[in-house]
Amino acid sequence: MSVPLESSWAIYRRMARYAVPHWRVIVAALVATTLFSAADVGFVAMMKPLLDGSFVQKDLTTIRWIPLAIIGLFLLRGVAGFGSGYGMQWVTQQIVAGLRRDMFARLVQLPVSYFDRNSTGTMLSRFNYHTGVIASALMVATYALREAMVFIGQLGLMFWLSWKLTVFVLVVGPPIAVTVRYVNKRIRGLGERIQSTAGRFAEALDETIKGQRVIKLHNAAKAEQAGFERILQDTRQLAVKVEATTLISGGITQLLAAFAVAGIVYFATLPEMLNEVSPGTFVAFLVALTTLMRPVKVLNSFNQQVQLGVTAAREVFAFLAEPVEPAGGGLRLQRARGHLEFEDIRHRYQADAPEALKGIRLTIRPGQTVAFVGKSGSGKTTLLSLLPRFYDPVAGRITLDGHDLRDYALNDLRAQIALVDQQVRLFNATIAENIAYALDPHPSEAQIIEAAQHAHAWEFIQKLPKGLHTEIGENGVQLSGGQRQRLAIARALLKNAPILILDEATSALDTESERHIQEAVEELVVGRTTLVIAHRLSTIQRADLIVVMQEGRIVESGRHEDLIAQAGVYASLHRMQFQE
């Protein structure tokens, strides 16, 4: 899906919605910011009475209260600075947490097709890099607000001290504004390229970590290093360009400020001005002008982070605008009987891709065990992935107990299906938590053990240091392939769904374990509709129906004995396997 780019103001408004719930803290922080800025302006304003009253007029009252006022102002400045910084940091972290919360909520609701189109590295980059940039930009915006208030206060003070000198200073304002506008545009463009590179960076790391065995086996370390080096070079060059743009613009701004200061000195020392400006007024004005340059310089340097933050926020909001999976229809489903009808099913993964399924027609009765066989790429997994609606067919329909799958509430539909596929996915949690994953109500430990026993996983679980409560690491990295698969089977067994999908469920098991699993499955399938994908034909000979697929079509179907007698595709596959 192509999401239109939002304007900067639209991004600001959307970010503001995340800040509104914390308005009380924001108001308190703004009050503290105002006091901080007032203390800065007040200190500069004291330059006039300090010089005129103390050094020129030698007024004793002024000499006594000025030191106390300075201490009081700096005390106020310190307390207000802490309150402002702490309050805005608290709000910033709340906003970032809210963004990440919404992003995660969107992530778990995205359709499978989204994950097909986007790499893991790109998605991780949005959660880590982009939200980190937004956090930096929000804190920068906080400091920018404080400096802006200082700027306004100092400018007001300058008008109060001498409006003529202030007007003279403002002549250089337009050139500075033009410079800042150019920098905004330049940094925004570079920011978009930097964040694109950040996605490539995360993607390269993710692929290297996950594919390290393939890299080692193919001696591809140098090739991978070369590719990573290109990404590093792109990142480095873009970062240098951003910094160069910021430094050049800062230098130009300071040069313009230097012209302003030189002009002020010249203008203030003209004979007609000397009669209007006292020494204290002139020094206070110069200090205010010098102090005014600090916010200008700081705002200019902060601009880089703010523009990067806008670009990052645009990426985040584009992600949040991705369409989620449809919730399904309004038809509720407690427990399905398991009667399935595939009616002229056609499917392709992309509009310009060839059809993966071509007119599939099939009836599966409740309680049947149906096996799907065929060469890789024949469409077996694609067909069964339509049942839990990981994808919807582009033509035709699938019915469950007489109703189109799209008529059922999606959560109710998926509650009817247990799946064990060839790509086992476990979570970085305990064995018990993986077997009982997301079940409500949560099963007892005895039920978990029973499922593990039926899956022939209990034998190795007992030998682990903490048994069921052993942490298994990311995707069960501490377990063997066969052990991981048996845990996945135990999870499917415990779900006790009326429809069971086994996609190469025993592929990682040894012969003895496979035999035990087959016995457990034979007990489990009673009263359930079971769909099995298997390359080892020996495991599905007892199936009620064997469906032979080839190039997205069903070419044969029947029981094992009937298909052997036909001497067709199935018989050929069977003969080939047993010869091997």
Key descriptive features of the protein:
alpha/beta, 6-stranded mixed beta sheet, elongated, 580 residues, 10 strands
Description of the molecule:
- It is a single chain.
- This protein is 63% helix and 9% strand.
- The protein is built from 21 helices and ten strands.
- The model has no long low-confidence stretch (mean pLDDT 82).
- The protein has 580 residues and is an alpha/beta fold.
- Helix 19 (511-524) links the parallel strand 7 and strand 8 (529-533).
- Helix 1 packs across helix 12, helix 2 (23-45) runs antiparallel to helix 4 (60-107) and helix 4 (60-107) runs antiparallel to helix 6.
- The protein has helices at 8-19, 23-45, 47-56, 60-107, 112-117, 120-161, 163-170, 173-210, 212-217, 221-268, 271-274, 279-320, 380-385, 410-415, 431-435, 445-454, 458-462, 481-495, 511-524, 560-566, 569-579; strands at 340-347, 357-364, 369-373, 395-400, 403-404, 417-420, 499-503, 529-533, 545-550, 553-558.
Uncertain runs: none
Instruction: Give a count of the beta strands, DSSP E runs of length 2 or more.
Output: 10
Q: Helical amount among residues, as a percent range?
A: 55-70%
Range of strand content: 5-15%
Number of helices: 21
